[in-house]
């Protein structure tokens, strides 16, 4: 039975202490991303982040295990939305279409979730820093592998497969992850660093998956390098 002013089935509103903790965490995220976008990752310290929020280093470590963890807080949030979107795709949908639609259809929702924490423009600036900072890029790629494994297991479950016996879910997700990585690299090498540009590149790259895998790439007039022996 619902209480007055609360919708039946609605999650309870966090208590005052929990709301204060969330505000501190969010303030640390915003401060960290502002500093990283301005000074670079190596030029930003945990002490800098804590000082920007007027808390101690000890308080910072109550919320985050490291500077790397706070730098990736927003990308991890986006990933959780994609995972949720994959789980919610209609049964019977082809696995590749599940992944494609999960990313593209949840794009606006991801951006809205990001903007509840930080301006979307700031998030994209930090994405540029990730792409140009070896330590962050390595961490990003490492996490991408973990995400691919999680997605492969979800796809296998949807299809009634044993992910350890049937290689197809991991092959599919690895190919899909490669497409996303191509889009990220093209975005970071371009001159439009907006979220819209990133989405457009992902759409273009995903639209090329089928032709790239099974199509004939040879252009008319291309030289035939095969030589008979």
Question: Which features would summarize this protein structure in a list?
Answer:
single chain; globular; 229 residues; disordered N terminus; mainly alpha
Give the topology, please.
Blueprint: H1 16-39, H2 46-53, H3 57-63, H4 67-71, H5 73-88, H6 95-105, H7 107-115, H8 120-132, H9 134-159, H10 168-189, H11 195-207, H12 209-214
How would you describe what is shown here?
The longest helix is centred in the middle third of the chain and has 26 residues, at 134-159. Helix 1 packs across helix 8 (120-132), helix 5 (73-88) crosses helix 6 (95-105) and helix 10 (168-189) packs across helix 11. It is built from 12 helices and no strands. 22% of the residues are buried. It is globular, with a radius of gyration of 21 Å. It has helices at 16-39, 46-53, 57-63, 67-71, 73-88, 95-105, 107-115, 120-132, 134-159, 168-189, 195-207, 209-214. It starts with 15 loop residues before the first helix and ends in a 15-residue tail after the last helix. The protein has 229 residues and is an all-alpha fold.
């Amino acid at each position: 039975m619902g209480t007055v002013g609360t919708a039946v089935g609605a999650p309870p509103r966090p208590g005052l202490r929990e709301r204060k903790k969330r505000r501190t965490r969010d303030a640390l995220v915003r401060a960290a991303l502002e500093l990283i976008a301005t000074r670079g990752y190596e030029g930003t310290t945990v002490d800098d982040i804590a000082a920007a929020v007027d808390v101690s280093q000890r308080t910072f470590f109550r919320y985050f295990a490291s500077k790397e963890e706070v730098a990736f807080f927003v990308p991890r949030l986006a990933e959780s939305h994609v995972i949720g979107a994959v789980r919610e795709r209609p049964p019977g949908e082809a696995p590749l279409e599940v992944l494609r639609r999960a990313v593209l259809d949840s794009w606006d929702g991801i951006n809205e979730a990001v903007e509840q924490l930080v301006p979307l423009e700031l998030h994209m600036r930090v994405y540029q820093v990730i792409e140009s900072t070896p330590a962050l890029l390595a961490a990003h790629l490492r996490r991408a592998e973990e995400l691919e494994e999680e997605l492969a297991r979800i796809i296998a479950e949807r299809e009634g497969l044993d992910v350890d016996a049937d290689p197809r879910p991991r092959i599919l997700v690895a190919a899909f992850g490669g497409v996303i990585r191509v889009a990220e690299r093209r975005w970071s090498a371009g001159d439009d660093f907006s979220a819209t540009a990133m989405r457009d590149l992902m759409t273009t790259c995903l639209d090329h998956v089928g032709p790239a895998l099974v199509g004939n790439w040879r252009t008319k007039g291309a030289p035939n390098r095969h030589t008979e022996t």
